[in-house]
Structure formats: structure tokens, C-alpha cells
Amino acid sequence: MSVVYDDQGDKSRGIKPSYNTVERLKSLIASEEFTPGSRLPSERKLIDRFKITRANLRKAFDILEREGLIWRHVGKGTFITEPDSEKSILNISGLVNELTPVQLLRARLSIEPAIAREAAIHASEADVKRIDAARDAASRATSWSEYERADDLLHHEIAAAAQNPLLMSMFEYLNAVRRAVSWSKVVRTTDRPAADHDSFVEHNRIYTVIKARNANEAQAAMHKHLISVSKRLFEDD
Predict the structure, then answer these.
(1) Are 75 and 103 in a shared domain?
(2) Which of 4, 122, 180, 230 is within CB 3.0–4.6 Å of 163 for a Cys-Cys bond?
(3) What residues contact residue 150 under an 8 Å CB cut-off, 6+ apart?
(4) How many domains does the chain have?
């Protein structure tokens, strides 16, 4: 049974509905123009090239990432995976089929609290400001998709603040797997996070203790946050 992806276009910008963005991106990836490991053009260039909306493109990216064809590095771009090399670990779709939410949580609990601890020790003032900005964006989100992008950015900025390329790489891969697992498991019953959403308080706590350079509390705050998130998302598991 084939899956049909509905691309709607944007009439307000005079853009006609596009032809299956996912398939067009797959054709681009398979063309001689790009090779495994190379970076795709920027979102702006792809939007102009395919005459589609940004939302349309990002939905297609989500699908391709879950299928293991691409991987995204916040701040650096979108890359084509290398299935025939040592980077085959980036084939996320295969791993997701074998991974349970509980196993994912254990992996996150092993890595992300330690990253938060390192962030509290090594974050620059600029890092702290970026964490604050992402925290604020999450609290002001008007939809779940907007919240999830801000939440992704918040955790990314905390990982970047640890000032450790290896930890950053581990986080990026773990986060890509987390998004794929969440996509297949989570069912939202509201259009947006509630004003008293628990994650807002938890984000505030993480930010506060990182800013205060309290490494132990940062580690504890991230651990508590991950447990809380797991309970909210997978309470029926």
C-alpha cells in the first residue's frame, strides 16, 4: 500500500500546489547533483526551487529523516546519509523499528543530564542567552509543532553549551531518534500546550541552574524533566 503525501502550496504567495515534495526530494537526493554525506541546499533555495511552502518542506524533511535518508544538524544544515559507510548508524528508521520508548528514555537519561551538567560548567554568556531565548520561544508557542521546534532548539542549545563536539554529535543522533520515536507514538488531544504545561516550569528550572553554574542541580533538573516528559507522552505504555 503506497502512502500519498498531500502538498497544498500557498495561494497567498501565488505558489501552486507542488507535486509530491517527498518524491521530488528523493529524486534530488538520488541525482548526480548530490552524493551521500553532502549537504542539501538551504530551505530558502529548496522552497524557491520546488515552489512550495516552508511548512511543506519541513513536513517532507520529517518523513525523509524518519526513513533514514537525511539527517539534520541544527545550525549547519540537512545532510544526505551514507548507508554504505561507517555512518550507517545514521539510518534512523531501522533503529526506530527496534527501539521502545523505555529504551529511548534510558538512553536519554544516560546522556542528557550529563550534558546539562557540562553546560552549567562550560556555557558562555552567549550560550546562556540562547538557552533563555529558546526557553522563551517554547513558552510562547501557539501550536504543538511550534512548541516542538522550540523544545528541540532548547535541548540543542544546552548541548552546544557543553562545548564538547563529541557530546554534541551524540546528542544530535539521539535527538533525531527521539523525534522519530515520538512521531510514531504520540497522540495530541489539544492544539497547543496549555499555559500551565509542566515542561515550562521544568525548562525554567534547567535554565536557572545552568545560568547559576550549578552543575549538580542542572544534572538533576534535566533528569527530572526527562522523566516527566516520558510520563506525559507515553503514559499508556
Answers:
(1) no
(2) 122
(3) 134, 137, 138, 141
(4) 2
Long-range contact pairs involving 26-33 (C-beta distance under 8 Å, separation at least 24): 26/64, 26/69, 29/64, 29/69, 29/70, 29/80
Question: Mean pLDDT for the chain?
Answer: 80
Q: What is the pLDDT of residues 182-195, one digit of tens each?
A: 655 556 678 888 88
Q: Are 137 and 60 members of one domain?
A: no
pLDDT in tens, 117-132: 999 999 999 999 999 9
Centre a 10 Å sphere on the Cβ of residue 5 and count the other Cβ atoms it contains: 12
Q: Does 128 fall in a domain?
A: yes
Which of 89, 123, 147 marks a domain boundary? 89
Rg (Cα) of the chain, in Å, rounded?
19
Q: Rounded to 5 degrees, what are φ and ψ at 164?
A: -140, 105
